[in-house]
Amino acid sequence: MAVTLGDIERAAELLRGSIMQTPCTYSKTLSEITGADVFVKFENLQFTASFKDRGALVKLLSLSEEEKERGVIAMSAGNHAQAVAYYARRLGIPAVIVMPRYTPNVKVEHTRAYGAEVILHGGDLSEARAHAEKLAAERRLCMVHPYDDEKIIAGQGTIALEMLEAVPDLEIIVIPVGGGGLISGSAIAAKGIRPGIKIVGVESARFPSMMQALYGLPVTCGRSTIAEGIAVKEPGALTLPIIREYVDKIFTVDEDQIEEAVLLLLEVEKTVAEGAGAVGLAAVRENPDWFSRRKTGLIISGGNIDMTVLAEIIRRGLVRSGRLIRLLVEMRDAPGALADIARHLADSEANIWEIHHQRAFSSIPLKTVEVEFVLEMRGLDHARDTVDVLKKAGYQVRWCR
Q: pTM of the prediction?
C-alpha cells in the first residue's frame, strides 16, 4: 500500500484534539543569521517532546482489538519509545520497548515512567531491532516500527500539512533524516499540496546511511553521534523509494555544527533541541547558497537531551565564542604576585572562574609558578584585549584553546 496525501489527511483527522498542533513561527534572528527566511516548527513541544507522537498514535489507533489485547513492541533510541509507551498506556495497550544500551538516560527513564517494559539490548538500533523481532515472535506482540510502516509515515506527514497551513508559500522544508519516516510523510504531504516546494533532508555526517543508499553505496557509519535520534544504519524499505522520488537534496552535518545549532536554538529561540532536532538549522547555516532569501521551514523534531550533554554543549559553545577562556600565565613564586595579576584582570573586567597553580609538573624555572586561569569574558575581542594587557604588564601568557 502506497502512502498518499489522502492517507495523511485522514491521519490528521485522527490526531485532531489528541496531540498538539505545534507552532510554526517566523524567526527574525535566525533569518538574519542564516540569510534565509526561517520558519520554525516546534515539534519538541509535543507531550513526549518529539514528532514521534504523531505516527505512534496513528499506528496504535489502527490496531485491531485482538492486537491491542496482545500488546505491542517497539525498538527505538528514545523518542519513538516514549511515544509508543505513552499512547499505549492511554489506550490501555501493554507495551514492550527495546532500546540500545547507549540510549540517553532521560529517554530511558521517561519511557519507563510511561508504563512500558523497557529492555536495554544491543549497541545500536540494528541489534535492538533484531532482539525486538525475536521477542515479538515469542510473545505474539504487534511490532510498531519507528519508520518503516505506512501508518507511521502518514502520521509523521501531518507536520507538513500544518506547516503549509501556517505558511502556505513555503519554498523549502528542511527535515532530519534517520530511517526516513518523517521526511517521507512530510514530502508526500508537502508536494501533494505544493508541487514546487523543495524537500531537503539532513543526516549526521557520521550516519549518512540514507544518502549512501540513494547512491547505491555500501552503508558505512560511525560509532556514535550527538544526533542519536537519527543514528540509523538501515534505511527503510518503504521510505527509501519515497525519498528517491520526492526529496530534492540531502545534506550531512558534522558534530560541531550540530552542537552550535543546539546552542543557537537555546540562545535565540529559548527552546531545547536534541541533536537530531537541530540538524536542520546546522544545514541551513552551512549551505547559504541553497537557502538564501528563500522561505525555509525547519522542523525541530525533538527536545529530549540529557542535561549533562546539554551542559557540555553550552560550556563548549562558551569556549568557541570566547566567552570562557583558559590562560596559562607564568609569574614569580612570591607573595603578592597573584594579586598583581588579579588586579590586571579586574581592570580588564575579566571574571575569574577558576585558578590552578602548577609547580611540580612543569619545565619552567625554579622560583616561578605557572597559573591556569579560567576566565569569563564578553567574547573574543574582550579575550584578546585581556591577553594584551597581561603581556604589556610583562607576563608570559598562553591562551589554551
A: 0.90
